[in-house]
C-alpha cells in the first residue's frame, strides 16, 4: 500500500518560500518524505455561504467517489479471476500508473472548466461518478448472472460421482432403451467395494440380468457401474444396494435434454467470453475516470478549505487592525469579493511507514506558530484536530 499526504499550508511572502520551508524540514536533513508540488489552478472563490456549504458537500462527495473507485477496482479483480496479477496494469489514470498521475497532477481544464463555479464543478463530478456507479451495478448484475449460471452448470459436471451430472459420461449404447420390461440402472460403487459389487449385484434383487454390469467411469474414489434388470425389481434393488453401501443414481437417458444442457453451457461460455473483453475495457476506462474525478475532488477540497481557513482568517485579522467593529461585517464583505487573493501552497508528501510519526511531529513543529483554531487533519472519512498547526491534510491510500 502506498500512502500520500495532501497538504495545504498558508503562503509565506511567496508560495515558493512555503515549499522551500517544507522541503528543508522534511527532506534535506532527515529524508522523512518524498514531496511534490500539487498544482491547483485559480478557481472561482464564490461567496462565503457557498464555500461553507461546499465544505460539507465535498466531504460527502469525496467519500462517495472513493467508494466508487474501490468498487470498480475490486470488480476488475473479480472479473480477471485467475489473472489477478494483471489487475495493477489495468488500473491506470490517463494511461499512467496511479503514483505517476498523483505526483504529476494537472487540473483537467476540458472536463472541469475553471470558469465554472466551484459548485458547478462539484455537480459535474457528482453526476459523472453517479453514472459510473449506476452503469457498474447494471453491468456487474448482468455479468454475474451469466457467470453464476455457467458456474452452476459447471458444478453439475464436476465433483463426486454421487452428485455430478452424468450426461457427459454415459453413452446411448450403455442403456437398454425403449423396453417395456427392462431398464438400465447406474450405481456408484466405492473403489474398495468393487469385489463385493461383482459378487453380489446379480443377487441384490430378483430378475437382475446376469453379467449385465459394466464399469463406465471412475474418479479418485468411486466407479460408475451400469446394471440391467426388470422394471418390477427397481424398488427392491435400490433397497438392497443401499444396505450394501452402493448408491443408485436416479438417471434417465434423454438425448434431447442432454443435448440442450450441452448447448446451454456452450452458449453461456461463449457469451461470457464475448462480454469479458468489453467489460474489462469498460472497467479500465471508468476506473481511470473515477480516479481522476476523485483526485480533482481532493483538489477542490484543498482549495475550499484553504480559502476558508487562510484567506478568511487573514481578512478578519486585517479588519481587526483597522477597526474591531468592522470585523462584524467581514463575512458580508467576503461574500462579495469574488477576486479575493488565495495564498496557499498545496503539497503532496509520500512518507514511509517508519517515518510517519516523526513526520507528523515535524509538521506540527513547523506550523505551531499558526492559529491552532484553524488546524485540522482531514483523513479520507474523518476530521480530527492536529494540535497547534494550521494545516490541511488528506491521506490518499493506493492499495
From TrEMBL:
InterPro entries: ATPase_V1-cplx_csu (IPR004907), Vac_ATP_synth_c_sf (IPR036132). Keywords: Acetylation, Hydrogen ion transport, Ion transport, Transport. SUPFAM superfamilies: Vacuolar ATP synthase subunit C. GO terms for cellular component: lysosomal membrane; vacuolar proton-transporting V-type ATPase, V1 domain. It comes from the Eukaryota. Pfam families: V-ATPase_C (PF03223). One of its GO terms (molecular function) is proton-transporting ATPase activity, rotational mechanism. Signal peptide: none annotated. Belongs to the V-ATPase C subunit family. Subunit of the V1 complex of vacuolar(H+)-ATPase (V-ATPase), a multisubunit enzyme composed of a peripheral complex (V1) that hydrolyzes ATP and a membrane integral complex (V0) that translocates protons. V-ATPase is responsible for acidifying and maintaining the pH of intracellular compartments and in some cell types, is targeted to the plasma membrane, where it is responsible for acidifying the extracellular environment. Subunit C is necessary for the assembly of the catalytic sector of the enzyme and is likely to have a specific function in its catalytic activity. V-ATPase is a heteromultimeric enzyme made up of two complexes: the ATP-hydrolytic V1 complex and the proton translocation V0 complex. The V1 complex consists of three catalytic AB heterodimers that form a heterohexamer, three peripheral stalks each consisting of EG heterodimers, one central rotor including subunits D and F, and the regulatory subunits C and H. The proton translocation complex V0 consists of the proton transport subunit a, a ring of proteolipid subunits c9c'', rotary subunit d, subunits e and f, and two accessory subunits. This is V-type proton ATPase subunit C. The lineage of its organism: Eukaryota, Metazoa, Chordata, Craniata, Vertebrata.
